[in-house]
Write a structure and sequence with these properties.
heterodimer; A: mainly beta; seven-stranded mixed beta sheet; 11 strands; 0% helix; B: mainly beta; six-stranded mixed beta sheet; five-stranded antiparallel beta sheet; globular
């Protein structure tokens, strides 16, 4: 079955450590996204990538970094510069053809990061 | 930046009741999407709308793209306990590839 796999599901880290969250998709989608979700704040866009080797900052990119070396993979690194990293992180992908259905995001199951 | 106003913020209903929630904006949208998120999981698409006035159903769910293109609503008929979750609206303006998200409606269903 095609889909998006995020790992790990739960991650605990000490303050000051960098952590990398994995996101892999086998949907052959061109665009990939990372969102952060905090209670009562909805989904906030961290970074997105429309094509391999290219990515753009979203609304809350400070303290995060990404790479897009392969179409299938879009890992997110939460750096020690992120002041409040404890959150639920969601990865999504989207086809970028001209069809109207291409606007739809498909999400992974999320990764919950807790910084102790 | 652009905002979506989603209401109500939360609802607590009895099983079997109908539910209605909506999203409004001052901007014109060309796509409206409705997602449901179960606790600890990623959002799952319920209904996608692409034309002003479009009314689309998915089982007990019905959503409409407002005529003004500035709003959308989602109705759930005869609610059941598994309807519990957070419902999000999201929209696209023009060719902007970034979706704009509402803050969600948290639904609780009392059996």
């Amino acid at each position: 079955d095609g889909g998006i796999t995020q790992s790990p599901k739960y991650l605990f880290r000490k303050e000051g450590q960098n952590v990398t969250l994995s996101c892999e998709q086998n949907l052959n989608h061109d665009a990939m996204y990372w969102y952060r979700q905090d209670p009562g704040q909805g989904l906030r866009l961290i970074y997105y990538s429309q094509i391999v080797n290219d990515f753009q900052k979203g609304d809350i990119a400070e303290g995060y970094s990404v790479s897009r070396e392969k179409k299938e993979s879009f890992p997110l690194t939460v750096t020690s510069a992120q002041k409040n990293p404890t959150a639920f992180y969601l990865c999504a992908s989207r086809a970028t053809s001209g069809l109207s259905g291409a606007n739809v995001l498909t999400f992974g199951a999320g990764s919950r990061l807790t910084v102790l | 930046g652009q905002q979506l106003n989603q209401s109500p913020q939360s609802m607590f209903i009895q099983e079997g009741e109908d539910v209605s929630m909506n999203c409004t904006s001052s901007s014109i949208f060309n796509t409206w999407l409705w997602y449901k998120q179960d606790p600890g999981e990623g959002p799952v698409l319920l209904i996608a709308l692409y034309k002003a006035g479009e009314l689309t159903s998915n089982g007990r769910l019905t959503a409409q793209f407002g005529i003004t293109r500035k709003d959308s609503f989602l109705n759930i008929s005869a609610s059941i306990p598994s309807d519990v979750g957070i419902y999000f609206c999201a929209g696209q303006i023009g060719d902007n590839r970034k979706l704009i998200w509402g803050l969600g409606t948290s639904l609780a269903v009392n059996p």
